[in-house]
Amino acid sequence: MPHRRRTPPDRRLPLHRGRPRPRHRGGRSHRAGRHGPPPRLCPGKRLPHVRLVGGSPDITSSLDLVGPGFTLLTETDSPERRREAGTLRGTGIPVEARALCDGARREAVPGGWARIGGATGPDDALLVRPDGHVAWRASGSSRGALAEVLRRALSTA
Predict the structure, then answer these.
(1) Domain ranges of the chain
(2) Over the stretch 108-155, which tens digit does the pLDDT of each residue have?
(3) Do 123 and 68 contact (CB within 8 A), yes or no?
(4) How many Å separate Cα 142 from the centre of its chain?
(5) DSSP designation for 11
(6) Is the pTM of this model over 0.85?
(7) Distance between CA 119 and CA 138 in Å, rounded?
(8) Which CATH architecture has domain 42-156?
(9) Beta bridge partners of 99
(10) How many alpha carbons lie under 13 Å from residue 156 in its C-beta half-sphere?
(11) Is 61 helix (H, G, I), strand (E, B) or coil?
């Protein structure tokens, strides 16, 4: 039986809970808190949960605001976005404009919506499909583009 050579102590991997500590590839460690910019909600991703307090007792999450048709979700109430959704409802497209923070309803942890990338400006909005996936991200300068985006999305479905 061959004799195994022992690794010198200076060449051994540092132990972590009895096992060799994993070495991270790349320049940044996930433990260093350097995750880069916050994740942005972009089309195709699911709408994340943001806990809400106050207001109606059946709405406790951003997910409760979605459906049954398309939802145009803003951080605060936007009369212009409501008018835009109302115009589209008149043409037969089921879309409802809803605000995350509306009257007594607000975020449980202030700034959570902006932190996950839900809003970068006061007039930004997300068009959310009935299944909870983001269909379109609207900036304040994209007024009037919602109708074209919905028509294009519904014609390819």
Answers:
(1) 42-156
(2) 888 877 777 666 666 788 889 999 998 888 777 666 788 887 777 777
(3) no
(4) 19
(5) G
(6) no
(7) 9
(8) 3-Layer(aba) Sandwich (3.40)
(9) 74
(10) 5
(11) strand
